[in-house]
Write a sequence for this structure.
């Protein structure tokens, strides 16, 4: 594993994580390709938008089409046509967020029912490692317990204890050639529990470390406050990953607090609801005010949607449920998110990140006020 911090500006970092399938330039936003594809886009299109790495989901790929099929067909890269780095999460978030499918949790692992056919399934740290080994991802996440923010302190304590127990079993499990493995710290926003979890996880020789169990229902103030004191507790020489964050404000704020990597379905899911992400906030293209608007989704944007199509046309496509509309909005939203992140990286290298963040947040605030 090779991770180099090339520049810092306050707590913000710009670096490079080298993997078996290429370099990841950090800060890095990872588009989510849950089932092996970033919805509506070709791999080459995702790459052209500026993505270094995409995320796949162990839970869904295990059930459909199965790691045996993917392994037989050359691994996840060959199977999906994406030749760059791939991070696979463990499937734990799906297991624990779909609580009505959960059967039982014990120190050995978790038993649950598949969302596809209701069949009973068992995941253990070793089983998760085996599935990800056969998938052949570049970065494999450990199995953890990610509870909602509003559970009892006792449940958070159990999540920390079992996450540590499972990490100790998974850290040395067999892995694919060149595969990196990241540990995950839990503990919600409780300083004592979060610190205990971080100290336990960084005591194990992982290639990177993640802050899990945030952006799961706590307030934005609580989340950012926790990241502010928790991120510096993670090793400076290893990549730091915030799991499940993808809005513009959130991205800028966690970068400012020392986070290197983050992922979220927000840009692509927002596109599928008919909305565009812009520097001044979201545009709901279903709104009648765009029916005769000849302008691009965002002035000055260089994405394929803005280069060739008007707001009026995209609105027409969205309202008529034409797939091209979803594709154009997905292209635009990922372009916006990836460019925002790349701009942050460039600003860090110039020692100008605070100004970059302030300008971007001021535009977002102005846009929200205009909407009111």
């Amino acid at each position: 594993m090779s991770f180099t911090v090339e520049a810092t500006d306050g707590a913000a970092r710009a670096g490079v994580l080298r993997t078996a399938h290429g370099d990841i330039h950090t800060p890095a936003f990872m588009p989510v390709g849950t089932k092996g594809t970033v919805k509506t886009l070709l791999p080459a299109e995702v790459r052209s938008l500026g993505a270094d790495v995409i995320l796949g989901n162990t839970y869904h790929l295990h059930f459909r089409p199965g790691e045996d099929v993917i392994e037989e067909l050359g691994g996840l890269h060959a199977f999906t046509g994406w030749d760059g780095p791939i991070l696979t999460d463990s499937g734990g978030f799906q297991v624990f967020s779909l609580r009505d499918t959960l059967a039982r949790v014990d120190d050995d692992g978790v038993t649950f029912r598949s969302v596809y056919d209701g069949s009973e399934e068992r995941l253990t740290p070793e089983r998760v490692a085996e599935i990800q080994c056969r998938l052949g991802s570049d970065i494999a996440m450990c199995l953890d317990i990610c509870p909602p923010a509003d559970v009892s302190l006792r449940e958070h304590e159990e999540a920390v204890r079992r996450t540590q127990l499972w990490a100790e079993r998974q850290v040395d499990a067999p892995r694919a050639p060149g595969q990196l493995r990241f540990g995950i710290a839990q503990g919600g926003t409780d300083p004592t529990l979060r610190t205990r979890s971080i100290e336990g996880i960084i005591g194990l020789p992982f290639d990177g470390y993640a802050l899990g169990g945030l952006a799961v229902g706590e307030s934005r103030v609580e989340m950012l406050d926790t990241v502010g004191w928790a991120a510096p507790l993670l090793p400076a020489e290893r990549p730091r990953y915030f799991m499940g964050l993808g809005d513009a404000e959130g991205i800028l704020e966690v970068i400012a607090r020392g986070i290197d990597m983050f992922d979220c379905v927000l840009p692509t899911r927002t596109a599928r609801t008919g909305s565009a992400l812009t520097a001044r906030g979201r545009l709901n293209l279903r709104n009648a005010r765009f029916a005769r608007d000849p302008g691009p989704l965002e002035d000055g944007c260089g994405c394929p949607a803005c280069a060739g199509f008007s707001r009026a046309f995209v609105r027409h496509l969205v309202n008529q449920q034409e797939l091209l509309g979803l594709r154009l909005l997905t292209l635009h939203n990922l372009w916006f998110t990836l460019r925002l992140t790349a701009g942050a990286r460039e600003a860090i290298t110039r020692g100008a990140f605070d100004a970059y963040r302030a300008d971007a947040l001021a535009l977002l605030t102005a846009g929200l006020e205009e909407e009111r």
In short: The two ends are 48 Å apart (CA to CA). The chain has a mean pLDDT of 97. Residues 271-371 form one domain.
